[in-house]
Amino acid sequence: MTKTKNDAPVLSASEADTHSSSDPDSSYNSGATPKSGNRPAERRIGAAALLIAAILLTAATLRSPLTGVGSLIGEIQSGTGLSHTAAGMLTTLPLIAFSIFALAAPKLGWRFGMERTMFFCMIIMTAGILLRSMPNNPALFLGTALIGSAIAVCNVLLPGLIKRDFPHRIGLMTSLYTSSMNGWAAIASGISIPLSRNAGWRGALVYWVILSAATALAWIPQLRRSGDKSRAKGASSYRKTGAVWKSAIAWQVTIFMGFQSIMFYIGISWLPEILQEQGMAPGTAGWMLSLMQIASMAGSFLMPLIASRTQSQKGLAAGSSALFLLGFGGVWLGSPALAPLFIMAIGLGCGTTFSLVILFFALRSRTADQAAGLSGMAQSLGYLLAAVGPTLFGFIHDQSGNWTVPLATITSLSLLTILFGYAAGRKGYIEAE
């Protein structure tokens, strides 16, 4: 299997080899055009369409159940009596789950099959969404943790499944799934407050059970393909990824991912409330979060196309990170009338830096095993670092009594993001060390 320079990186490359590309049922992308009456080819096209639908629906669930919480955080606090620190845990819990399950996801996919694992993740997510909407605080946090655990596994397995089943369309399929992920995240941010006006904040959050349940149904036709015949090979690949933990380049990529994730999750957690305290209407503040997601979607789609054609990405990484400095610094010190501009800068920074990190998994490694190891390391430790952000941001607000100190803090962290982005963007490979 070849991989072009423009192809998107794969988060769980250990699963990419679990199906032989010579098996006509293991890849939907042979490039053959079915002739009239060629029923096997027609069936393969139909199966490919069902798989693409499952992939895009799964992508739609990877952020939307979480981004709506940021728009409703004020209502959630009013209804539950949570402090800003405790409310920040609603975003921190999924990040902790991301960190824990990022390392376990490849093994789960190998053990049970990626399709079956995806299906059960959607069942778990559906249960978590229902539990989160129950009228007590422990259920709110437990349901949120279940949602985060399901998302964490899908985050890692989905790109590997794309590489396995669409080996010649990795770039296109990755663009489609990231666009679906960010697009639905934007929708969730924008419609949560309008939904809450009729159904309350719990009702607004439970609406997403429709999407997760539909996605679970979409995986049912794929379950027969979960019986891997090459698990021994996948297991061997899974065990060969430990060397990246000794690499300085791997640590630079990991820390860069952590800081850019802090920017994103603080943004979706607290920006609506900050803007409301600056005089913006609650509904408008919610749509500002949608604007941030739309800008992020544009950035994540375009940046890999640019970065994959350059020898070094240090300027792109530093420049993308500087958008956080402009955005959060503007919200802190700028005119509230310019808030849409600052929010767009934050969104572009989130999209471009995230897509660069994903691209670095491939650009900073020479083999699929190295890419898988770097991905697991960066997601695990990166999200663990990001998990500190929303809760710490809320804690600083509780201690200072205003948003000035938290905004000054995150603006300062933007400078560190620029530094580590520059370091991670320098040309080099893990094994060269």
Brief write-up:
Residues 1-40 are annotated as: Disordered. It is found in: Cell membrane. The protein has helices at residues 39-61, 64-80, 84-112, 114-132, 137-165, 170-206, 209-219, 231-238, 248-277, 282-307, 314-333, 339-363, 368-400, 404-424.
Provide a descriptive summary of the structure in words.
Keywords: Membrane, Transmembrane, Transmembrane helix, Transport. It is found in: Cell membrane. Residues 49-429 form the Major facilitator superfamily (MFS) profile domain. InterPro entries: MFS, MFS_Cyanate_Porter, MFS_dom, MFS_trans_sf. This is MFS transporter. There is one protein chain. The chain has 433 residues and is mainly α. The chain has a single domain, classed as Up-down Bundle (Growth Hormone, Chain: A). The chain has 14 helices and no strands. The two termini are 27 Å apart. Residues 1-26, 30-34 and 228-240 have low confidence and may be disordered. The chain has helices at residues 39-61, 64-80, 84-112, 114-132, 137-165, 170-206, 209-219, 231-238, 248-277, 282-307, 314-333, 339-363, 368-400, 404-424.
Indicate the topology.
Elements: H1 39-61, H2 64-80, H3 84-112, H4 114-132, H5 137-165, H6 170-206, H7 209-219, H8 231-238, H9 248-277, H10 282-307, H11 314-333, H12 339-363, H13 368-400, H14 404-424
Helix pairs in contact: 1-5, 1-6, 1-7, 2-3, 2-6, 2-9, 3-4, 3-5, 3-8, 3-13, 4-5, 4-7, 6-10, 9-10, 9-12, 9-13, 9-14, 10-12, 11-12, 11-14, 13-14
